[in-house]
Amino acid sequence: MTSACVGFSGFIEINPANVTAVVGENVTFDCITDSTVGSVQWQVEPEFGVNGSDAATSICSGSNVLLLKPIPGKYEFTSDANTHSLSIRNLSLNDSGTYVCVANGTHGPGKGCSQLVVSRKYRLILQTPVAFHSAFFFI
User: Hey, what CATH class is 3-119 in?
Assistant: First the structure.
């Protein structure tokens, strides 16, 4: 599933559109744009808060968002032709939120969004019940 937006007489597509992951996993979002894009910036509208960011105003909603910066071992940005990727390593609960790819083209900004939900790892431990024996003593 993809998330696509038209916002500047160009095209932006985010793959995948929605992700559910577990604490400790890695995830990569690809922002695919047309050839009119000059620069791409990644933002997040956090559910709980994100490290390595600066506050800004979302082009999408006008609400406060965080501008993501590269952090070794956490946030990595790569670009190849018209694909601009954000990789998030070692997910934590604080990484949950809406990730926004903002592309600035010759006709203004456009955006694509993807929702990330991070949940805890749970281990199911099955134990056999301990048998209790009752003894009756008669005197």
Answer: mainly beta
- Angle (CA) 44 50 56, round 5°: 50
| Residue 10 amino acid letter | G
Q: Indicate the residue type of 138.
A: F
Where are the domains positioned within the chain?
Answer: 3-119
What is the pTM for the complete model shown?
A: 0.70
Number of Cα atoms under 13 Å in the Cβ half of residue 42: 28
Contacting residues for 78 by C-beta, under 8 A, at least 6 apart:
84, 85, 87
Burial of 31 (0-12, 13-18, 19+ CB in 10 A): buried
Q: Binning pLDDT at 50, 70 and 90, where does residue 38 land?
A: confident
One-letter amino acid for residue 51 of the chain: N
